[in-house]
């Protein structure tokens, strides 16, 4: 049993997740899958999985919680963690910390601001972070997969080569962004190589149960209960959670904070991972997206979870 900090009442996480799974069903059909990535166009839009990992050791899931899915932009979170672990505040010399207020692949603001990405969660910032990691490893996606496995003590995770190839083939805007970054010397590597590395990291597949476990250090001041050791400095955890809270949900980050009240990162594969500091992590997957690219059903599910569990930083 878990206690609601706002009401003091106890509740079962398992029952809450099952209730949410049933409650969100009427919302299916209101969004659309990310069909601009051909391999994601065929994903079953009715899939739904949700998982919670707590600092006390509870590990609860419902629905399709053990089915791997394409993490897509959720990998930006782990790329930032890896970059901060290796370079500390040096990373912020390449990317900012401010919300963009524009779509994640917007070009005009990047050019107007001379190739300086607003934050690490827009595509320009993510490409800059990937480029930074390319200076540390020959295989960014492999490094990331290994980190997620270690952080969550999970065995899953693989690159979906078909998804990666599909993204690389259609990465016209990302190539344009990378070339602007290179023109302004924000990245060091050849633009096409950076885009290819980024697309491969986005094609990593894990389940929401894996994802909730792997993100747990963000709720525990950098300590991984699953790995049994500290994997991030507490000051870096605060910074990552702060940037997630202000920039993690594309241009609807403010609306998400209003509705859910937790730092979170989404991806166009339909996943969202959210952090409740001092309590645990929640991950949800539902492929239908809203107009800005966040999981429509997933956002509803997280709002219901926050309301009924009292897990919110607000």
Relevant terms:
5-stranded antiparallel beta sheet, 12 helices, 3-stranded antiparallel beta sheet, 314 residues, Beta-lactamase, alpha+beta
Question: Can you tell me about this structure?
Answer:
- The chain is α+β, with helices and mostly antiparallel strands and 314 residues long.
- The protein has helices at 13-23, 75-87, 108-112, 123-134, 140-152, 161-169, 172-183, 191-202, 208-215, 234-247, 253-259, 296-309, and strands spanning 2-3, 10-11, 49-54, 59-63, 69-70, 158-159, 204-206, 223-224, 229-230, 264-266, 271-276, 280-285.
- Helix content is 41%, strand content 13%.
- A hairpin with a 6-residue loop joins strand 1 and strand 2 (10-11).
Shape: globular
- Largest β sheet strand count, sense and barrel closure: 5 strands, antiparallel
Low-confidence stretches: none
- Strand arrangement in the largest pleated sheet: 4-3-12-11-10
Summarize the entry for a quick read:
This protein is of the alpha+beta class. 41% of the residues lie in helices and 13% in strands.
List the helices and strands and how they pair.
Blueprint: E1 2-3, E2 10-11, H1 13-23, E3 49-54, E4 59-63, E5 69-70, H2 75-87, H3 108-112, H4 123-134, H5 140-152, E6 158-159, H6 161-169, H7 172-183, H8 191-202, E7 204-206, H9 208-215, E8 223-224, E9 229-230, H10 234-247, H11 253-259, E10 264-266, E11 271-276, E12 280-285, H12 296-309
Antiparallel strand pairs: 1-2, 3-4, 3-12, 5-7, 6-7, 8-9, 10-11, 11-12
């Amino acid at each position: 049993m878990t206690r609601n900090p706002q009401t003091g009442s106890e509740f079962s996480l398992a029952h809450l997740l099952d209730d949410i799974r049933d409650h969100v069903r009427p919302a299916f059909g209101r969004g659309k899958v990310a069909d601009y990535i051909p391999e994601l166009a065929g994903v079953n839009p009715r899939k739904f999985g949700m998982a919670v990992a707590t600092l006390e050791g509870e590990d609860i899931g419902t629905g399709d919680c053990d089915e791997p899915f394409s993490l897509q932009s959720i990998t930006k979170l782990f790329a930032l963690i890896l970059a901060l672990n290796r370079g500390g505040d040096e990373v912020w010399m390449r990317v900012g910390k401010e919300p963009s207020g524009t779509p994640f692949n917007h070009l005009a603001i990047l050019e107007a601001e001379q190739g300086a990405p607003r934050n690490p969660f827009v595509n320009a910032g993510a490409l800059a972070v990937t480029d930074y990691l390319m200076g540390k490893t020959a295989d960014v996606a492999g490094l990331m997969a290994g980190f997620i496995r270690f952080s969550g003590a999970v065995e899953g995770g693989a690159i979906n080569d078909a998804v990666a190839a599909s993204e690389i083939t259609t990465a016209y805007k990302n190539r344009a962004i990378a070339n602007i970054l290179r023109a302004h010397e924000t990245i060091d590597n050849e633009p096409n190589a950076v885009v290819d590395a980024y697309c491969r990291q986005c094609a990593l597949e894990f389940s929401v149960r894996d994802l909730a476990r792997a993100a747990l250090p963000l709720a525990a001041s950098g300590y991984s209960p699953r790995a049994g050791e500290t994997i991030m400095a507490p000051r870096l955890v605060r910074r990552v959670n702060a940037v997630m809270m202000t920039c993690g949900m594309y241009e609807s980050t403010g609306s998400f904070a209003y509705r859910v009240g937790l730092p979170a990162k989404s991806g166009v594969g339909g996943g969202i991972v959210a952090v409740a500091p001092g309590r645990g992590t929640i991950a949800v997957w539902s492929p239908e997206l809203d107009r800005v690219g966040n999981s429509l059903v997933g956002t509803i599910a997280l709002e219901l979870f926050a309301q009924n569990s009292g897990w919110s930083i607000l």
